[in-house]
Design a protein that fits this description.
GO terms for molecular function: RNA binding. It holds the Pfam family RRM_1. It comes from Morella rubra. This is Glycine-rich RNA-binding protein 6, mitochondrial. It is a single chain. This protein is of the alpha+beta class. The chain has a domain of about 80 residues: RRM (RNA recognition motif) domain (Alpha-Beta Plaits). The chain is built from four helices and seven strands, in the order ααβαββαββββ. The strands form two sheets. Strands 2-3-1-5-4 form a five-stranded antiparallel β-sheet, with helices on one face. A two-stranded antiparallel sheet has the order 6-7. A hairpin with a 3-residue loop joins strand 6 and strand 7. It is elongated.
Length: about 140
């Protein structure tokens, strides 16, 4: 508790200390340049929709695509999404303007989107042997 209150005192009491910490934080977060106009947005609220995300990011340029990733079962946000701009410059402006800002009461983080990694093909189910038993590699023999 004492540690948290001392941090609050340092950040809340001195605007220069918070601006120094913020500038150091930004230099760490922005050490890469964008190679694609697609951005990954993390830290979204469960209540954030495509429309709310589009409204928040539309002021930085022309949006091609806005997608909040949702859970199939509940339909609610999984807490992240993607925004695609027409140019890399617009995406960079959005990254600088929206990173570590509040959206729907949550702090969001804006990073370059990485290409989706290829998944291995699904494993085929093994046929039971002549004895009727099948092998389960994690547990042992099952019947």
């Amino acid at each position: 508790m004492a540690f948290v209150s001392s941090i609050r005192r340092v950040l809340g009491g001195s605007s220069t200390a918070s601006s120094i910490l913020q500038s150091q934080y930004n230099s760490i977060r922005f050490n890469t340049t964008l190679t694609s106009p697609k951005l990954f947005i993390s830290g979204l609220s469960r209540l954030t929709t495509d429309e709310k995300l589009k409204e928040a990011f539309s002021s930085f340029g022309q949006l091609l695509d806005v997608k909040v990733i949702t859970d199939r079962a509940t339909g609610r946000s999984k807490g992240f999404g993607f925004v695609t701009y027409t140019t890399i410059e617009e995406a960079e402006k959005a990254r600088e303007g929206m990173n570590a800002k509040f959206l729907d009461g949550w702090v969001i983080f804006v990073d370059p989107a990485k290409p989706r990694e290829a998944r291995p093909p699904p494993q085929l189910q093994q046929e039971p042997s002549d004895t009727g038993f099948r092998s389960n590699k994690t547990v042992g023999w099952c019947g």
